[in-house]
UniProtKB/TrEMBL annotation:
Keywords: Glycosidase, Hydrolase, Manganese, Metal-binding, NAD. Coiled coil: none annotated. Residues 5-112 form the Glycosyl hydrolase family 4 C-terminal domain. Its cofactor is NAD(+). This is 6-phospho-beta-glucosidase. The gene is chbF_2. Signal peptide: none annotated.
Length: 148
């Protein structure tokens, strides 16, 4: 049974999907799901070391890619590279714990509309989730000192 708290947060139904994926692997269901996997060249026009979300058959042996496409249209490659740039920058920011790295990542995201939005979002989220962000301890201290 799923805890009620999962219904009160964003992405509430990801927990259902996660349980279905675990069930498919544990019980060797050979069920088809969309999961993130290293694509190892299944898609011919992105780097082989990138992870992609694609159709896979899941069972006891893990995820076996069953891609529905093997080539991205040139018209979507710009967006794919933009999102990958954001993902790489966000990962680097998580490791560094530096506010400027977070701001760079957020400004690369097509979902963030301005520098001002990025700064407010970064400050609010870092302060709200500080107990889960040990790499950001110095950044949190600096942000708190600026509030006074």
């Amino acid at each position: 049974m799923k805890p009620k708290e999962l219904e009160q947060r964003g992405g509430a139904y990801y927990s259902d999907a996660a349980c279905e994926v675990i069930n498919a692997i544990y019980n060797d269901k050979q069920a088809e799901h969309y999961v993130n996997v290293p694509h190892h060249g299944h898609i011919d026009n992105i780097p082989a070391d990138w992870a992609v979300e694609m159709t896979c058959v899941l069972g006891r042996e893990g995820a076996k890619p069953h891609p529905r496409l093997t080539h991205f249209d040139d018209k979507v490659m710009g967006l794919i590279h933009t999102i990958k740039g954001f993902e790489v920058a966000a990962s680097q920011a998580a490791i560094s714990g530096e506010l400027n790295d977070v701001l760079l990542a957020l400004n690369l995201s097509p979902l963030v509309q301005s520098d001002r939005d990025a700064e407010k979002l970064a400050r609010d989220l870092i302060l709200a989730h500080e107990k889960w962000l040990p790499n950001f301890a110095a950044t949190v201290d600096k942000l708190k000192s600026e509030q006074h």
